[in-house]
Amino acid sequence: MNPYEIIKAKRDGQELDGDAIRRFVQGFTRGEIPDYQAAAWLMAVYFRGMTDRETTDLTLAMVDSGATLDLTGIGGPVVDKHSTGGVGDKTTLVLGPLVAACGLKLLKLSGRGLGHTGGTLDKLEAIPGFRTALDREALVAVVNRAGMAVAGQTADLVPADGKLYALRDVTATVDSVPLIASSIMSKKLAAGAPSIVLDVKTGSGAFVPDLEGARNLARAMVAIGRRAGRRVEAVISDMDQPLGLAAGNALEVAEAIACLAGQGPEDLQELCLTLGSRLMVLAGAAPTHTEARGRLEEAVRSGRALQAFRTFVEAQGGDPRAVDDPARLPRAPIRLAVPAPAGGTVHRLDALAVGQACVVLGAGRRKKGDPVDLAVGVVLHKKVGDPVRPGEPLATVHASHHERAEQAAARVAGAYRLAAGRAPRRPLIHDIVSDG
Amino acid sequence: MNPYEIIKAKRDGQELDGDAIRRFVQGFTRGEIPDYQAAAWLMAVYFRGMTDRETTDLTLAMVDSGATLDLTGIGGPVVDKHSTGGVGDKTTLVLGPLVAACGLKLLKLSGRGLGHTGGTLDKLEAIPGFRTALDREALVAVVNRAGMAVAGQTADLVPADGKLYALRDVTATVDSVPLIASSIMSKKLAAGAPSIVLDVKTGSGAFVPDLEGARNLARAMVAIGRRAGRRVEAVISDMDQPLGLAAGNALEVAEAIACLAGQGPEDLQELCLTLGSRLMVLAGAAPTHTEARGRLEEAVRSGRALQAFRTFVEAQGGDPRAVDDPARLPRAPIRLAVPAPAGGTVHRLDALAVGQACVVLGAGRRKKGDPVDLAVGVVLHKKVGDPVRPGEPLATVHASHHERAEQAAARVAGAYRLAAGRAPRRPLIHDIVSDG
User: Which residue has the higher pLDDT, B427 or A115?
Assistant: First the structure.
């Protein structure tokens, strides 16, 4: 089939064979198939969808477009984790040291924040001296020494994804389950870990707000992993309100450290224990989730989890003293309380609005390449279900400019819905998808 | 709305306002909106369709992309006609002189043949000396003198259509009713005639083979015309078998001349009288279709129709002697009969296969720009419903090469289905659409 026939077949709802998909991806990546044919094909995929087989072939073709990581130098079971992104999502900073303290090797290629969702690289860079640009040898050396390593994506991995994503971004073809799933999974497959846990967020602050959409995405990604010979599970977790209490880069690092010391917010701790126990069993390091969870909890109690974080920070050039003295992290000069306009119970706390307040403050990016203010953000004092007295602070805005502080505080105030009676409860873990 | 938002709105099934459509067409035509965004939008239109209002706005935006014809110098009611194309469709060559003889002014910009469908310009160029490249003044002068003029499309009319069509052609977005309807109607509106009859073909040799599809296309085009302030009707005519008996450029000219002399095949004559009587009433030149038809028949009987054709040919530089002596038209050196393999009745005669035989002979083009052999083609001796004796010639192939003659004869033989009993009858006129 030539490119025209491949577009037409997808347009007409036919299942494309692996050869057609490979040649389309290859031709597009090499510049032999023009953008306009790829754009028409992407829109046809948007409308027609893809079978699991097609999505896997697409993912593998994208992986084949570039280099893959060689993990043979790593001693121990290599694992990976991906989150679809949210507000206050500092999970990697807690999960990594937790599983590293239990013998796993977490090697993660991360991204930067965009829009209302934060990025792990930005958060880590709030630690003085921390370097996220590591070459392959350095990555392997850090993983072997610290049990975990986090670095930025390199351009030679999955070049097809960068090119396809740029085109999707300007042709309204981003919101497609097979295209999202193949984009995420191509990077996970290229990074090489045999065991992968996916944190698929659902709720107002998530990339896929509705539960059904999140389930479809989770199912598609797990199916790709299984067909590609990896052990993959997806945890569908709530992102209708922010995760934990802190949103903003340095503020989230401080909260992650507290969590590793056993003093973190309950939802963050629970999610990290869930993700960690799934990874332990996937990697064959524990026989049951209960036993895995027990070991992870012991790593916190014993201080080994926090020590793993110190080792990791130091191995990537960061100042380990910041781990024990959060005053060494960037701090914003302005603190502005957001008082409750009335009493009641928090019935809703809109993650998207809190994320947008962070963008106003400069903690996030409006567009790629924007600078980020590492110090600023929002610390929540009340979450869904909490009782509130009139005038009591709902949250504190950490800002560098007075005007932005006021704007952000107004957004945060608008994020809360207070009412009488019991608040509707959303579970933290909506579902766990083990089989695509 | 920016281009991204316009793509997304159409993708999501929203109705686009006129301003958005205008800016998209204008931006694309000027090269400000890149091909890949236009391609994604076209595929979204393919899946979502367009309302009559949107299709009309698209058509008018395309018209606005270029020049339009100024008809003020023409004395008399100007009319136009369009056929969606078929095999043996020499309708314009008969209809034009018919209505010209009754006082109408047919000004038609025509195209060339492509694939199995013929083109009016190619057919007219079979007449020695005939010129189809006329500038605006010449066009008006010919119409005023002969009552009709036929010329090639000029590049300054509807440039958006050329650019959009080229993109649709390589992105599998040709087969979309609003895109087909706007492409055809933009050229009709730019050519300026207030009264237009559309001949929408249906059957195996038609661009839209199924009757329901043809009806949708007819309805969409009539709606555009009405909303744009023109008087438009569409006749849905059969193209499951070829129209008339001759297919091939010079052969069709000869058949058109016979028809104007009252000796043409019944289906061709009937279709031209139908189209002509609709045009007469649309243009206000006759009060009823019955009266119009009577006048058109009288134009044939009196010889005025044939005389109008002579005047037209001469006005465009052609040799009028060819009208009375078809031996002056190009003639193919080889004639090969296609004998009936058995006796029976013709149950089917596949127009597409006959058109493909013409392409094999060189009468049509495989791709744009291919040369055309004006002399070659196929003359049918039997059509659906005709009884056939074993060995009796079904058709005669007129060829320039022996090998091609054999190949074409095999295709023509394959186009016939002979069987016992009465043949299933398809009407010549399936429907007339007067109101979109």
Answer: B427
Lowest mean pLDDT among A43-52, A114-123, B98-107: A114-123
Instruction: Please tell me which residue of chain A has the smallest CA distance to B36.
Output: A36
Residues of chain B neighbouring A7 (CB-CB closer than 8 A): 171-172
A13 touches chain B (CB under 8 A): no
Q: Is B241 on the interface with A (CB under 8 A)?
A: no
| C-alpha Rg value of chain B to the nearest Å | 22
* Contact list, A28 vs chain B (CB under 8 Å): none
- List average pLDDT for each run of 10 residues in chain B, which is 436 residues long: 95 98 97 97 98 98 96 95 96 98 97 86 97 94 97 90 94 96 97 97 94 97 97 98 98 98 97 98 98 98 98 98 95 98 97 96 90 96 97 98 98 97 94 89
pLDDT at position A295 is 98
Which of A36, A164, A367 is the best mutation test for B, with the most CBs of B within 10 A? A36
Contact flag A36-B170 (C-beta cutoff 8 Å): yes
Provide the mean pLDDT of chain A. Answer: 96
Tell me if residue A148 falls in helix, strand or coil: strand
pLDDT of residue B329: 97
Catalytic residue among A80, A122, A161, A373: A161
Please check the confidence at residue A436 and state whether its pLDDT lies above 70: no
A82 carries an active-site annotation: yes
- Tens digits of residue pLDDT in A89-104: 999 999 999 999 999 9
Chain B closest-CA separation from residue A49 CA (Å):
13
Q: Is the pLDDT of residue A407 over 80?
A: yes
Specify whether B183 is catalytic. yes
Which domains are assigned to chain B?
A: 3-49 (1.20.970.10), 78-325 (3.40.1030.10), 330-419 (3.90.1170.30)
Chain B residues in contact with A16 (beta carbon < 8 A): none
pLDDT at position B200 is 98
* Nearest-CA distance B9 → chain A (Å): 9
Residue B435: predicted pLDDT: 80
Catalytic position from the list B22, B82, B163, B348: B82
User: Which A residues 14-73 touch B at CB under 8 Å?
Assistant: 34-40, 42-44, 46-47
Which residues in chain A are closer than 8 Å to B164, comparing Cβ atoms? none
Q: What is the 3-state secondary structure (H, E, C) of chain B?
A: CCHHHHHHHHHCCCCCCHHHHHHHHHHHHCCCCCHHHHHHHHHHHHHHCCCHHHHHHHHHHHHHCCECCCCCCCCCCEEEEEECCCCCCCHHHHHHHHHHCCCCEEEEEECCCECCECCHHHHHCCCCCCCCCCCHHHHHHHHHHHCEEEEECCCCECHHHHHHHHHHHHCCCCCCHHHHHHHHHHHHHHHCCCEEEEEEEECCCCCCCCHHHHHHHHHHHHHHHHHCCCEEEEEEEECCCCCCCEECHHHHHHHHHHHHCCCCCHHHHHHHHHHHHHHHHHCCCCCCHHHHHHHHHHHHHCCHHHHHHHHHHHHCCCCCHHHHCHHHCCCCCEEEEEECCCCEEEEEECHHHHHHHHHHHCCCCCCCCCCCCCCCEEEECCCCCCEECCCCEEEEEEECCHHHHHHHHHHHHHHEEEECCCCCCCCCEEEEECCC
